Amino acid sequence: MNKPIAIDLPHNIGAEEAKRRMRNGIGRLKDHIPGGGHVESGWDGDRMNLRVQAMGQEVSGHIDVHETKVRVELMLPAMLSLFAGQVEGLLRSKGAEMLEDKSGKKG
Known about the structure:
- By secondary structure, the protein is α+β, with helices and mostly antiparallel strands.
- The protein is built from three helices and five strands.
- It is globular and about 45 Å long.
């Protein structure tokens, strides 16, 4: 059975900067897939549609960029659903790192 994952990644860098970082970072996604993989993405407004193929499996989903959060929704195929916790943890840590405000401003 397929397993949905949905997480919110809060940020304070604004929607446009978050989109820019997502655009620039999506190419590095395959570096985090054991054995490599194929990543396809495309934008429709503030939504990035995503498809990742690796090890005979396909993960599809989308990323919605908002002013103060990024929402990631993925559908893991049955075989990968066993690793949902690890996938979610990786998304949270790498996503937070990507969306971190590095300007030094507080507030």
